[in-house]
Design brief:
two-stranded antiparallel sheet; elongated; 5% strand; mainly alpha; 5 helices; Pantoate--beta-alanine Ligase, Chain: A,domain 2; 2 domains
């Protein structure tokens, strides 16, 4: 008798832990029922859930694209300004190099302040600069005389 009582107690605890299922719920869970009242079968619920969560809607994609476009619109002018500023600074650095090389050439060769150095005097494999500096904005450098600063043809690129 004691074993039957233990089996009944186990069955009672199992019944208390799991809620009772009606016939309608069991057919829905098994996927056999199509529409019973306003409920869908488990299979059609799973299909509709998967269809909703497996991709993005057109509205979501368009919203993300709009936000990205707004960010690009805000960032692009700053990027362009930063690029032109860095090009100007590189050009001014090149002008400083040319100017220091020009002054060194004038001192070593005892030239007057009105003398204009030739490109071959300053630039070459055995000269002060190995190669001609290039303006990143596409300008050309003018060496000028020793008393004047070298210049670039691009506006704003001056010492």
């Amino acid at each position: 008798m004691g074993s039957k009582r233990r089996q009944r107690m186990k069955a009672d605890t199992v019944k208390r832990d799991v809620a009772p299922i009606s016939y309608r719920e069991s057919t829905i869970l098994q996927g056999r029922g199509r529409f019973e009242g306003s409920e869908l079968s488990a299979l059609s619920l799973m299909k509709s859930f998967c269809n909703r969560s497996c991709g993005f809607t057109l509205i979501e994609i368009m919203t993300v694209m709009g936000i990205m476009g707004l960010l690009v619109t805000l960032a692009l002018p700053n990027l362009i300004r930063a690029r032109s500023t860095s090009q100007m600074r590189i050009c001014i650095t090149n002008l400083n190099k040319i100017e220091s090389v020009k002054q060194t050439w004038g001192l070593e060769h005892a030239k007057s302040l009105n003398e204009i150095p030739a490109v071959t005097d300053l630039i070459g494999p055995l000269s002060y600069l190995k190669e001609m500096p290039v303006c990143p904005s596409g300008g050309d450098y003018d060496f000028r005389s020793l008393k004047e600063n070298a210049t670039c043809t691009v506006a704003g690129h001056t010492l």
